[in-house]
Fold each of these.
Amino acid sequence: MGMNTNAGSGTSTVARPVLLTVDGDANNLPIIERELKDRYGRHYEIVCEQTTDQARARLEHFAVSQVEVALVLVGSWRASDLGNEVLRAAHDLLPNARRAVLIPWGDWGEPATGRAIFDGISNGRFDHYVLRPSASPDEQFHQTISMVLLEWAEANRAAPYTVDVVGESWTGRAYELRDALQHCAVSHRFCLANSPEGRELVASAPQGAQLPLVLFPDGRVLQNPTNLEISQSTGGPIIPDHTHFDFVIVGAGPAGLSAAVYGASEGFSVLVVDKGGIGGQATSSSLIRNYLGFPRGVSGRQLAQNAYSQAWVFGADFAFMQAVTGITRENDHLVVTLSESGRVRASAMLLAMGVSYRRLGVGELEALLGAGVYYGGSVSEAPALVGRDVFVVGGANSAGQSALHLAQFARSVTLVVRAESLREGMSDYLVRQIESNEAIQTRFGCEVVGGGGDSRLDHLVLRDVTSKTETKVDAQALFILIGAEPHTGWLPTEIEKDERGFILTGAGISQRSASQFGRAPFLLETSMPGVFAVGDVRHGSVKRVASAVGEGSVAVQLLHQYFAVEQLKPRGRSSDVPSAGV
């Protein structure tokens, strides 16, 4: 059982990524091997071992020989130390590999099993659980394995349709292009033009091509493209198909996408406009574990992609890489001005612009943006940080998720938090994972006040909030997630906001504005009749993905009520016929 590899020789015939299964049960192991070989044998090397010593020898050999290991699948992970020792070795020797444990069918009926799985994931011992395969083909088993392999491929930039970006430096336009691709929820990787991989990619482009280059899986090469060209090349629509909609949604984050799905599925004609792409801040979340219906977690990028596809299938229109610059009312409809394609008309609007991370305000660090300094999550940059020291600034869920994701790659991760406890702003499940992860340290009552490096970050200056003492530390990357500011500066004065710029809705708007309605404002309605606000941009909202999705669906029901009260007739998909006069 196993493959043609001499674990002690230092040489290997392995060219394909490895799927390693370890199970001390001689009856179970052949069944697992059969399922893996039948389905994945063409593209992965299947290795099966029964003992800890054999498995560890394999792992050590793969690490020394630089053989890619995609998945380590372990049975008997509670009955003995076999599984736990192999999981620890896999984490130490091959940090890029995904680790999963096998559980028997029906074992979820035991409360201890659920607790053991939760503790194992929280403590960072493994990433997923998989039901043991039974009758062949076991499609439930393969659904989970395929999901884990896709997660591994995307994390290591080996997934199909990965876009390559080549630039002369990490900063400037090359960074902006990577940021645009992330906002389009597109898997991508970056390399410097003078690196071996970069020179090979440049050689494949037209002679004399201008950097930075963006190379697509279908062979297309763009030279220093605009963000509009990036969106179009990745399949993102730019110009709306027509000019009159039942409602226009500003923002394609979770709240906006949820409203698009529910609105389009109920027959409304819907246009979603976003100055970036899809997903909003959610695309920077490497793994959301507490979202309903995803027991193994879901990445923000995957959630955004699925929601976009769902809304598109129902008939929603999209316009990416352009902003809404104005809203005015004309008779019984709203006129919405778009930055790239003129004006469209709408019977109602949803404001779901979300928020952006606050800037740190340290000049020398701002100059290294893209060269070790990043605002937002770590999904795109993490694979390049193996063996490096990384810092994350922030104390909310997004910072915790980023730290845990980085800990799979970096030598060390330090959370820098102004508060005295993570529990002041972070979910309990994340706090527990962070506290039990040996790769993550937390510095409380601390802030980043300086740093720098020669063309790339190599150090930070930290200051104790109480004592004001400063410390210089080595750092190869800094991820900043320090609170949010709403994208509301462009709104007309008729739409009321609180002192921080968040939009007031429902009972929160002023009595003066409410008196002009001739009725009670709806729950999520702003001080401009027919304009609703949902998600993070709304005053008093809960800053969670599930809450944003819920508000998006509730808003569609309120739109039904608004149309009924105002005696408006939904145009539906009949609005595909272009409207004159706009």
Note: The radius of gyration is 26 Å.
Amino acid sequence: MSIMQQSSKAQDRTLGVWFQNIQQGMVKLPRFQRFEAWDRGRIASFLNTIINNLPVGVTLALEVAGQEKFESRYIASSDPAQPGTVTQHLLDGQQRLTAFWRSMHNNYEWETFFVYLPQFDRGENKSGSEVEIRCIPRWVNKHQLRMPRWAEEPAQCFKRGLLPVNLLRPGDISTEIDLWLNDATKPLEPADTDPDALSKYKTYTATRDKIKADITALRERVTHFNLPYLSLPADTSKDVALQVFINMNTNSKPLSLYDIIVAEVESVAEKSLHALEASLNEKCPTARRYGNVSDLILSTSALLQEKLPNTRGMIEMDKKQLLANWPKLERGLERMASFLDSQRVFDEARLPTNAVLAVIAAAYELIPDYGDFLAKAEKLLRRYLWSAFFTDRYENTAASRAFADFKAIKAVLKNPGFTDAELTTVPALNRSEFPLADVDSLMAAGWPKAAGIEARAILAVTTYLGAIDFADHKTATYESIQKREYHHVFPDSLLSEAGIPSYRALNCALITWKTNRIIGRKDPLEYLEERVQWADEKVVCERLKSHLISYDLLSKAHYSGLDGDAFKQKLEADFNEFLRDRANLVVTAMNALAEGNSPALETLWATHLAEKQESAGVAL
């Protein structure tokens, strides 16, 4: 067994040397590194550490000798005109050195950094007593001027005791400093005709010399500030370098699985997954409505390689195959988003379970763009989607169950002549194992703004059927639904007074308001009428029907003059009748959707009313 090499020791390097190396293009970032992440507070904190000469953690660099091991990029805004030979790849410390480089040029669009020097603050009330970094937020006004204007004027900055941090930039910038000093101190310079001009000029010169001395002292502190680094030798293998990168990354936001896979893809294929993701977002922008695109990429890629869509499966993926499958991935995610939109499931907030996303996206690998088989295959996907929404298939161990469903769907799709009898091979469609929800379970489903599958499924049925807005009569769309709120049909205040739980999915409608909220003990229709300012009864009835809400049941829900047990008993009876009636309508729609059909609103209501009449006849 060979003796292990001693662990690396931190080596000293001043910011002056770091600056020079970045300036000459000798230090670059591997492409798998995340982009800038620090906000203005973190940047100011780091600069304060520097000017106060406090210690910071080490950075990590991979030595480069000859050919670069990784595809690389320059630190933001540092692209040199005549780059030198790359000698190091920065594996850890990107945020610190990017913040240092950019602040030393003060080239942030929305902020400018200054050093506050209280001894030069000529304001009526000094704004501080300590030397410190200050960040001034910037914006552009309607005249395209960068505001505040005083931050552009050296005299106004100096009056406030503020020195731009770019004057602390390492290197010979004496001309730039003198020009700034001339402008900053111009208002202090006495005219030749002033009484005691000579005495005043001496005071002016002393002030100028003092600020110049302070600038020089700060510049020395910055240039000689030690930012140590650990070094990996140039012959370190790529996989070892990546592992060290993952272990050493000190970003405040821990590396995600996606970051690690980005690094691994870079390692085996020398392609940037970040760039591919950006391209995917551009080509199919609707996919991001349904969840984090990085997660969708990984889970779908895992299924395309017949791996579990979880951490283990994603790590086990062949990273070269991931790239080879990229066209299938893009096509699958684009068609998945289009399919969900066709089912009027509009976004992540309204999605009952995200377990279906990768399954559907990966299944499109076997589905053509047109023809009879497209219709047949998408009917299978509709059955799968709504079965996933209205069974407990994905309440637990969602990844392994999604994997099993995908493999079964894939096997069915490989046989274009498949029959309905074969569909029970897909676990989610096997009703003996995973029966659809019934009226009682739907009545117990909680509030759909939370993440409950069944609760959101109920809401999804109403958006599928149009969910016409009570206020503006618009059918539900992705754009319109962003402005809607989760509304209690039977008001929460009314039910709470009787001690009846109001947060039930069947007591929820997704609508907008025309008026401000009026909270009080009001009957459902009275409450709605005040809030929505609706028109005639026929229009009201039509809008309610699109949400599977019975106008007749709401119109008889009156409680004025009632209190005590009489109030509670009537309200409880009316509310339960309302929930059960709506649950029956949802079940009818659910059964049709889970069979892959496309139920029409009028047909649902006609069937429902016929069943109610038949039931009433039997009761008589």
Note: The radius of gyration is 33 Å.
Amino acid sequence: MPSSRTPKKENSLREYKALLPYLSRYRWRYLGGLIFLVAVDAAQIIIPQLIRRAVDIITEGSFALRSLVFTALWMIAVMAVISLGRFFWSYFIYGSSQRIEAEMREKLFDHLLTLSYDFYQKNKIGDLMARSIHDLGAVRMSIGMGLVALVDFAVMASAILIIIFIQDARSAFFAVIPLPAITVLILLFGNTVGSRFLRAQESYSRMSDTVQETFAGIRVVKSFVKEWWFEKKFAHTNDDYREANMELAKLEGFFFPLVSFLSGLITVILFLVGGRRVIEGSMTPGGLVALFRYLQMLIWPLMGAGFMVNMIQRGAVGLHRVNEVLRTEPSIRSPEIPAAAPARLSGTAASAVSAAPAIEIRNLSFAYSQPGEVLKNISLSVPRGAWVGVLGRTGSGKSTLIKSMTRMIDPPAGTVRVFGIDVREWDLKQLRGLFAVTPQDSYLFSDSIKNNIAYGLEEAEEAALREAALREAADISALERDLELFSGGWDTTIGERGLTLSGGQKQRVALSRAVALKREILILDDSLSAVDADTEKRILSRLLKERAGKTTIIISHRVSSLRHAGMVVVLEKGGIAESGSPAELAAAGGFYARTAALQQLEARGG
């Protein structure tokens, strides 16, 4: 599970091992970019020599204009090479870093889709988005601009130091006296920037969480007039993010001006030492100008070393946070050798499978991480084609029972079987492909009504068959009468999470989506709670005909939703308190009977 621990300094750079496959894939692009980058550095080093030549020609007093023109043409040619080279190294190096970032983001997204239900209970969406965007952006900068700064520091700084010592060793010796201090500053800067950047990234994650949570629940926020509270909460996280970045900015604001000052001292020292050498006749004026130019050029590699350390440390922190997610394994996965699924469930299957119940639960007990069992010794057999109802108070374990069937949670081995096979032995994709589930939270996507209903259908299916399936599903869920109320009909785009629909419309769109799949087992988890009694009756009667021969499980707080069930199971504190037909339970005088009587009184009173 991702954590907020700061990576140890000795281990932080090891995170870059994860980039080796990407760097290997783009090695020729990087190599081409490095060749052009080195060529640009070499061309820039030539410029001061041309300036030296021009100054020396002028200071001699007698010269031909043709000599200056020739030197100027050489300078133009060199500058053209520099401009062209900068384009190509930017294209190859920055382009490759952008491609790697995109591939890593896609890999991270794909991996997130494989992680189990419990992962998203422990990790906030805003933090995951920050890792997918902000942290990967830091990685891109480290293998893009960071690499450029590293090469500039290694190539240009080394070449310049060699040239100035060859040209005038005495002046160069005095001029580079501040370099050790600059080196120490760079090392100190690298040791502190990583931890401060990590704090800034974590602050950004918390701010993203606040924004995502606020706008996802904007309807509730406005209903309770709590805008002021969320404004206060966002202001707090925003201030924390600002303070974390200000700490980083103070560090950078102290470091870079100080390095610039020390670099300027090099120029002052050269002015004093080199000027005296010119007066003594030991150096030409052009040579002094060339040294000035070289030392000005040396400032960027020295500053670039600071940028390099900054970006590499930021990239290491970002990569650490991304790798934490990538290293997280799904807690629920398919077995290495899944059990062979029945060749054909909706017809003449093997005799053993035909005889097996659609769902069989044997002595199932389950607890989440917190103390106390949510399900206690549940035993239940659901025959193929049966219509089963589940009733119980809030927190009685109804939804957990359903999650154990689809293996959204992992039940103990041998406790839950689907068509005679332990759910832990099924291939997950095949197992969940048997179910169509409408959860309590009718989640809809910000898309058209048609696409929301067609969400689970195969793309390759013929358009005519696809359209017919959608129409049939909408008719069963009594949604077709509402379509004419929408300006775009089928193609009406609904807001995020279905904000533009009423509660009943959201439930019926979600029900249509499940019915259109025509799966072997349909589970309705309190999916008609926002629908009026007449519409509920109409839906259930149509659903009963459409689901003939297939298994249907209805979870509901309303007894009226269970009237067609062949068997109703009543859960109480995680265990089965009652089971039987609706008529048997009504006569038994237990929770079912009391709930039915109370709801009848409420209906008459309404």
Note: Confidence is low (pLDDT under 50) at residues 346-353.
Amino acid sequence: MSKRILNKNNCIFTCPALSGKITVIPFPTTFKDGNGQALTKNTKLCCSGICSILTAAARGVPTPCPKSCIGGWIRGIESKKKINNVSLLNQDAMIMCDVGGQITAKLLPITPPVSVGVPVMPVADMGAEHSENTGNSNEKENLKEEKNSPEENKRDSEKKETEEEEEKVSEKEKKKYDFVLCAYENCEKAENCPYIKAESTIETKGAASKLRRNSSAKEKAYDELADIRMQKYEISWGNQAHHMISINDAYCRYPELVKLGNYFGYDINCMENCYFLPSWEKGDGYDEKNIHYKKAQAYEVMDVSGLQWHVGQHNYRIELPQEVISKYPQLRTIKCYSDVINEDVKKILKILQSRFKNCCLLENYENNRRYFIEQMNGLSGKIEEHLDIFGTYPKDSIPYYVSAESLRYAFEIPRSAKVILVKKDGNDWIFCKYKYTKYQKNDNSVFTEETGRLVYTDKSDCIMFCENVKCFLISDESRSFSLPFSYCVYKQYISDSDIDKKDTHFSALIASASDNGSSYVFPKRMINERLKECGLK
């Protein structure tokens, strides 16, 4: 069944995330279909307005759509209808924006030609003729009432219901050809083809539970290793069954892919697409903790488990410090997990479109099925390799970081740093200076070594002792103690019971300092600035 070809006048383009307008930039061509310039796959769109996805990522700050010129049609391309060897677009045309928006075509109604009727003379100008025709008018009214008898109304109602039912059936008939990749237009078997009839949607409710049930062997292996590490380090955490190919953020965004999956018997909740990752444990009060404690918990679990922290959205937005980006140029184009997976899935869809566009999927079914499942499981396998390497070389998991904290853990914590723990001993406040080292000898661990100790009595001595240390962990839950200076200070108060986990708190504190754009300052300059602040120079 043919679909309407798009032209500049018979459609508009919309994006559910955009509050604004989308302008069509057609590819130059001399062809016109009588209503306007036909649109080809080279057509570009210009978006202007506020993007709700970016606005949400910016915590409510209205953020304009950055797509002044966007192309890359993934659906609605007519392979057999071309202009100058360039395929036309039909009513199913769609572009996936890398921000997350889905731009689709909306057909405008066809305007029927306006019929020119006989002009009617106004009542005021009809004079006597009007009074003479009054009787005829009443007769017409009577005829109208007679025409609209209950029997007639019932027949009209039944006729309308029949027409509506036929329209629904016709619409359903049209929809069965939606999201079809094969050459069904020229196929005699299309009417009864099981691929054509396959659904293009799946039930997503309870997907995490299904994934866990289908992946019991993986969960068992995960639990065995996690239990050993929990006992060794005397901590505990929960776990999440993670869809490596995201079900809502990626797979279900492409109904063509879902239709193929349903036809070939692929399950997005299969064990091949599952990876177990640590998360907070029920009952540990995670939601009530402040940002520092959440960060410290995440870093401690990642350090001990060797796995990425599965807490937070996969479509996170993160701004890394310039110092970090300068050190690791590959971060200049870093994208969130959802965006990366979407790009991977779009590549698979293009490969499948190319393979199936001129063939019948019913013929050679097993080979086609094997090819499709190999593509899907191949992507899951590639992601799994990147997640596996995190425990040894966290930076090599790029670009597959399931949470913002996993990305920060890999790149924002420096290899070495100096930190100070302030704690009370009797009536004295003690400053303990530590050397912090991470990933020593390729071991995914944190090492801290105390390199100096000072009993705080004098501001000047304290400033000289602290050198250019910026990160201070203060064991004082009441927050009664204050540092004698505030220049270049990143501090966090903890309770005495948290001192045993100082390494983890050091990691979170150092990462926070890095996240706030902390850069190196020479010791002499730091000392001079702090002395000036305290009026000692």
Note: Residues 114-135 have pLDDT under 50 and may be disordered.
